[in-house]
Write a structure and sequence with these properties.
- The chain has 225 residues and is an alpha/beta fold.
- 28% of the residues lie in helices and 34% in strands.
- It contains six helices and eleven strands.
- A seven-stranded mixed sheet has the order 5-4-3-6-9-11-10.
């Protein structure tokens, strides 16, 4: 299995670079980045998965783990009627709201501080539920900061909950999607999905050169059996 300590080091290096509110440039757009929030400028994963996604134009979209709001705001820019964004990290919830407002989309993007789906009491059903997950396994008893939890998932507990709970938030005909990488413990995740009567089906993938070598980024659908 992938060495989770590499992900922790990447998290710490990224966090140490941003000690105050700043801006990052992604594909010709300027984005606000707050301290303690996962930066899509420090990894190629966010843009790689953005390219793999097809947003439900005219429909509803939920992003779990929104970070800066790159995906959620991009969904609104692409023409989704309503977008909701959740994050375990309160700084990330604020960051997503700032970027939604920056692009004039505060009325379309609802930002909620939530551990996965816990705080979505008044949310609509969604055409797409999406999570760019922290798909590197870490020991269950690992004490992580909220920034590190954007990179690793102790004991894969968040993934277990996502597989179990995400379909409950779908509109008829909707999709549950999850963004994984070749750093993930695929066999372990497939087994977890199966225990929740789900299976993982590849939608699309791409291979990107990262500092450690080529990494495969894969968009998966979580299908109910």
């Amino acid at each position: 299995m992938y060495d989770y300590t590499q992900s922790l080091r990447r998290s710490d290096a990224s966090r140490d670079k941003v000690r105050q509110r700043t801006e990052i440039d992604l594909r010709g757009r300027r984005w606000t980045l707050l301290p303690d929030v996962f930066s899509p400028a420090d990894t190629k994963s966010s843009l790689a998965h953005l390219d793999l996604l097809k947003f439900p134009v005219g429909g509803t979209f939920l992003e779990v783990g929104s970070g800066t709001g790159l995906i959620a705001v991009s969904a609104a820019l692409a023409g989704c009627r309503a977008v909701w964004a959740t994050d375990l990290n309160p700084a990330a919830t604020e960051n997503t709201a700032l970027n939604a407002a920056r692009f004039g989309l505060a009325d379309k993007v609802t930002c909620v501080h939530s551990d996965l789906f816990d705080a979505l009491h008044d949310a609509p059903a969604f055409d797409v539920v999406y999570w760019h997950s922290n798909n590197v396994w870490a020991p269950p008893d690992l004490d992580c900061s909220v920034h590190q939890r954007a990179y690793v998932d102790p004991g894969y507990e968040a993934h277990r909950r996502y597989f179990r709970e995400a379909p409950d938030h779908l509109a008829p005909g909707g999709q549950v999607l999850i963004a994984l990488s070749s750093r993930a413990g695929r066999a372990e995740l497939e087994e977890l999905a199966a225990t929740e009567s789900r299976r993982l089906v590849t939608v699309d993938s791409t291979t990107v050169q990262e500092p450690e070598g080529p990494v495969v980024y894969e968009l998966m659908e979580v299908v109910t059996l």
